[in-house]
TrEMBL record:
InterPro entries with a match to the protein in the record: 2C_sensor_his_kinase, HAMP_dom, HATPase_C_sf, HATPase_dom, His_kinase_dom, HisK_dim/P_dom, HisK_dim/P_sf, RisS_PPD
Pfam families: HAMP, HATPase_c, HisKA, RisS_PPD
Origin: domain of life: Bacteria
UniProt-recorded name of the protein: histidine kinase
Family matches, as PROSITE patterns: HAMP, HIS_KIN
CDD domains per the UniProt record, alphabetical: HAMP (cd06225), HisKA (cd00082)
GO annotation, cellular component aspect: plasma membrane
Ranges annotated as spanning the membrane: 33-53, 179-201
Length: 467
């Protein structure tokens, strides 16, 4: 590729922010198991408290109304009998004694007296009803007479109406505010207990989730769960998970050993075969074709080894600009390949330099092979990269025919090849699968989309280095 074929482009066909949905969509953040369990326990406790309150009202208010009405009726009847059977001098002394000793006040009831009935709540209405039933239908129970608050009971002595004033606390709220304090304390203790229960339920599942994430990252040694917990169900799950992790670790080790053996066993006879071809085949054309076949077999072996690399890796700071420049230099010079770049300077990402080099080499190879313009025969590749928040967005696109939309998700599947417009018998069907696997290992995301102006676009979202 000559110097004129690699130039920066000023107008990017599609902005990086318009990457396909898989790069930008965040997974829906649902309610955690702890809060869901706590919520349901809270609902259960709230329902129990409400049921308890209703039971308390049914068992306490009616008996208390009856008891209060009996006491007040007895008080009125005793006061009436005492006043009836006492002379005028003793009656005055009796009224003073009742006011000073019992807090009772007896006064004549005037026709112009104004009063408000004692009917503020269910208890007061029940008490008033019981008093009328015991003292007669002409009994009046009021909470205020002539703007003076209190518990007023209107009764008659020999046809003369009187008021009896007593303390309303005789039938006041049940236990005052004490029961509210105890109810609030019980509710707080219940919520604390619900939080503790939810935490106990959530803890083993949280550990299991963490261990599963470590296994997904290929770290099998850090995924061991406690096999001696007291709960039998959790203990069985932990034992099963540990055995599964051990088996996966053994399979991974066997796979690495097998691949190493295959690579060694295949490359040795291939090297001998190439040497014999160079020395024994006289026809230059046949020798060239045989050497090309051997190189293709070697490339296929490399692809298999690249795809089968372990998932676990330790990310490090990588200069993305240098990686892309190296991949472009390795592509070689081709006058029919034009590469335009628009890359911000000093872009550093978290990843593996060898893996990133492999990613861009595969993408450039794929674009060069399948992105050729059918009319002019020229391959035009656009590369753009920019930083956004804590990520680096990269877009690499060609100007070929693209692929059918229903095949986009299948392009990253191993050994899948697209339609005839993007097919090549020399391909292994692993290039894009290797790219997606490598980017996922580095904590990034990868997606493919047809460009609106033609061609296939590869979108990458890599983790930006904090340094």
């Amino acid at each position: 590729m000559d110097s004129e074929s690699r130039v920066p482009f000023e107008t990017e066909p599609t902005a990086l922010e318009t990457a396909p949905a898989p790069l930008e969509v965040r997974p829906t953040r649902g309610v955690s198991l702890f809060w869901r369990t706590f919520f349901f326990l809270t609902l259960l406790l709230t329902g129990c408290i409400i049921a308890w309150l209703q039971t308390f009202r049914a068992l306490e208010y009616e008996p208390r109304a009856l008891q209060s009405a009996q006491q007040l009726a007895s008080l009125v009847n005793l006061s009436r009998a005492a006043l009836i059977h006492s002379d005028s001098i003793a009656r005055v002394s009796l009224i003073k004694t009742l006011a000073s000793e019992e807090g009772l006040r007896i006064a004549p009831r005037e026709p112009n007296d104004t009063f408000q009935l004692y009917d503020t709540d269910l208890l007061s209405r029940n008490v008033a009803g019981q008093l009328k039933a015991r003292l007669g239908p002409d009994t009046v129970v009021a909470r205020e007479v002539n703007h003076q608050a209190g518990l007023w009971i209107g009764f008659s002595i020999d046809g003369d109406p009187y008021w009896l004033l007593t303390d309303p606390s005789r039938i006041g709220p049940v236990a005052g505010t004490t029961w509210l304090i105890w109810l609030g304390t019980a509710a707080l203790l219940s919520l604390a207990g619900a939080a503790l229960i939810a935490r106990l339920i959530n803890r083993p599942l949280k550990k299991l989730s963490f261990a599963a994430s470590r296994v997904r990252e290929g770290d099998f040694n850090a995924s061991q769960l406690n096999e001696t917990v007291a709960t039998s169900e959790i203990r069985e799950v932990n034992i099963g998970f540990n055995r599964m992790a051990q088996r996966l670790s053994k399979i991974e080790q066997d796979r690495a050993l097998m691949l190493a053996g295959i690579s060694h066993d295949l490359r040795t006879p291939l090297a001998r075969l190439r040497l014999e071809t160079e020395m024994s085949v006289a026809d230059p054309m046949a020798r060239e074709h045989m050497s090309a076949d051997i190189e293709q077999v070697n490339a296929i072996i490399d692809k298999f080894l690249d795809y089968a690399r372990p998932d676990h890796m330790k990310p490090e700071e990588v200069n993305l600009n240098e990686v892309i420049e190296t991949a472009l230099f390795a592509l070689g010079d081709d006058p029919k390949t034009v590469i335009k770049t628009r890359i911000e300077p000093a872009l550093f990402v978290l990843g593996d330099p060898v893996e990133l080099q492999r990613v861009f080499s595969n993408l450039l190879e794929n674009a060069s092979r399948y992105g050729r313009d059918p009319d002019s025969g020229v391959v035009q590749i656009d590369i753009a990269a920019k930083a956004k928040d804590d990520s680096v967005l990269v877009k690499l696109r060609d100007h070929g025919r693209g692929v059918r939309p229903e095949m986009l998700e299948q392009l990253t599947q191993p050994f899948f090849r697209g339609d005839a417009a993007r097919s090549d018998a020399t391909g292994t069907g692993l290039g894009l699968a290797i790219v997606e696997r490598a980017i996922t290992r580095m904590g990034g995301r990868f997606a493919l989309a047809n460009s609106s102006t033609g061609g296939l676009a590869a979108h990458m979202k890599l983790r930006r280095s904090p340094g």
